[in-house]
Amino acid sequence: MWSDRTKDAFAGRSSAPNNNPAAPGVEITGSAGRLAVIGRGMVIKGDITSRESLRIDGEVDGTLDVVDCQLTVGREGRVGANASAREIELLGTVRGNLEATSKITIRKGARLIGDLRAPGILIEEGAYVKGKIEIINTDEPAEINAPQPNVQQRAAGS
Questions:
Q1: From the centroid of its chain, how far is CA 110?
Q2: SS3 of 139, please?
Q3: Enclosing H/E stretch for 7
Q4: Triad 112, 114, 117: Cα angle to 5°
Q5: Which of 65, 79, 89, 139 has an alpha carbon within 20 to 30 A of 149's alpha carbon?
Q6: Are strands 116-118 and 111-113 parallel, antiparallel or unpaired?
Q7: How far apart are the C-alpha atoms of 14 and 66, rounded to whole Å?
């Protein structure tokens, strides 16, 4: 009645929760070509680290670190967290700072209260953003220039 194929399909899965007190929060691991989804009915409070792309349609409160992958906050997604990823696409609501190593896209109808930092930033008409925007240049190291002397002061002193 049961085939070996059904047993093999479930052999690698584990439903055991992460009970490691040294690593509070949720850790999702896998290959970079896969997608993890936090569904509409899910509420997660804690730190999330993922090594695969992540889509949030539920609620997350904490921090998000999507290592070298894409983070998408869907239209129903609500995030109260600082987030970092290779690429971030926002369609829902985020209260927190976003940092990407490639680009951040804020779609029409999305809401962000927080700062943006990435080499490429796209904000569609109809999106709401309240915060600072920093477009970083990946080709040159960031420099803070010392204040230049006022030209009028030099002219007056001569």
A1: 14
A2: coil
A3: helix 4-11
A4: 105
A5: 139
A6: unpaired
A7: 22
Structure tokens at 116: 């943006």
List C-alpha distances in Å: 116 to 26, 87, 98.
24, 12, 5
Rounded to 5°, the CA angle 11-15-19 comes to: 130
Q: How distant, in Å, are the alpha carbons of 34, 80, 120, 124, 137 from that of 111?
A: 26, 12, 18, 11, 25
Strand blocks (E) in 1-158: 26-28, 35-38, 43-50, 53-56, 59-66, 70-73, 78-90, 93-95, 98-106, 111-113, 116-118, 120-123, 128-130, 133-135
- What average pLDDT does the segment 65-71 reach? 93
pLDDT of residue 34: 85
Quick one: average pLDDT of 14-18? 39
109: helix, strand or coil: coil
- Phi/psi at 39 (5° precision): -70, 170
